[in-house]
Amino acid sequence: MKKLVLSLVTVVLSVLVVAPVYADASTEYFRWPAEGTVTSEYGMRWGDMHEGIDIAKKGDVPVTAAYSGYVTRSTEMNGYGNIITIRHKIGGDTYETAYAHLRSKAVSVGDYVDIGDFIGWMGNTGDSSGQHLHFEVHKPSWRNSTNPRDYLGSRAGVLDGTEFNPTNGSYGYVQIDTSPEYGVNVYDAPNGDFVKRVPGQSVYGVYAKEDGYYNLGGNQWVKEGSVNFKRFRAYVNYDHRYGVNVYDAPSSNGDFIKKVSGNDVFNVYEYRNGYYNLGAGQWVKGDNLLIIKPLFN
Ligand SMILES: [Zn+2]
C-alpha cells in the first residue's frame, strides 16, 4: 500500500512538472509569416524597444497570415511603411499580428484571411534599411506587443514561395490526409478497381473531380474524404500600379479582353500551355502570375 501511495505521489509530481512544458508548446499558434533569416529579435535595441522580430530575405518574398482572422489595418504608417494588422481569436484570447515594411498590400480592412494566405510582398518601405518583414504579436490588441517567438512553432510550416510549374490540365493539388505509413487506395475510376496504395502526406496534382473522387492523372483516382484538396491560387506578380492582360484563349492567338490589377488574387480553374484559366474563359499568361504552392495545415 505504501508503495502504491508513493508511486501515486510520483505520478502526480511528474504531471505537475510536465504540465508547464505542454502549456508552453500549446501557445505555438502562429505560422512563420515569411521565409528568411531572423536578423533582429524582440526586445531592447539601441536604447529603444524593438516591438517585433525582423525576417529578411532578398527577391520576391510572399508574406502570409500567421493565423486566420480579420484584417484590422491595411495602410501606410510612420516608421512602419506599408503595414497590415490581423486580429485573431484563439480559444478565449484575442491577438493582433502586424506585418510591416511591405512592398505592397494584398488585403483590405475587413477581409477574412486563412492561416497561410498571401497578404503582401516583403519590402523595404518606412523606416527600414534593406528588405525585411517586421513582424509583431500583440495580446490582446495593438500597442500591447509581446515576443513573437513565444507564439511561433517550428519553421516546418513556412510557405516555401517556390513557383509551381503545373502540368497541362491540372488546377490544384491534394495531399493524402493520413499518417505517412498509412496511406490511401488509388482506384482506376471513380468507384473503380483498386490499383495501388499511396503514402500519407504525399502530394499530387489534380486534374478532375467526379462522383466524390479526385483524378491524379491517368486512370488514378482517390476518394474525396481521404485527401486534403487545395486549388491553385494565382497572384498577379506586379504591384497595384500595373496590371496584366487577360485573353479569351490559352495562346498568343487569344483576343485581349481586359486588364486585371496587380496584387489581385484569383482561383485557377485550369493550367494549359503556359496560361492559367481564371474562370469564365479568362486566361492569363503564366509569366505574369506567381502560383504559390498550396499550403496544407
Ligand atoms: Zn523590426
UniProtKB/TrEMBL annotation:
**UniProt KW keywords:** Signal
Q: Which residues form the signal peptide?
A: 1-23
Which CDD domains does the record associate with it? Answer: M23_peptidase (cd12797)
M23ase beta-sheet core domain location is: 49-140
Does the record's keyword annotation contain Signal? Answer: yes
Which Gene3D superfamilies does its entry note? Glucose Permease (Domain IIA)
Task: Give the GO molecular function terms.
Answer: metalloendopeptidase activity
Name recorded for this polypeptide: Cell wall endopeptidase
**Species the sequence originates in:** Gracilibacillus halophilus YIM-C55.5
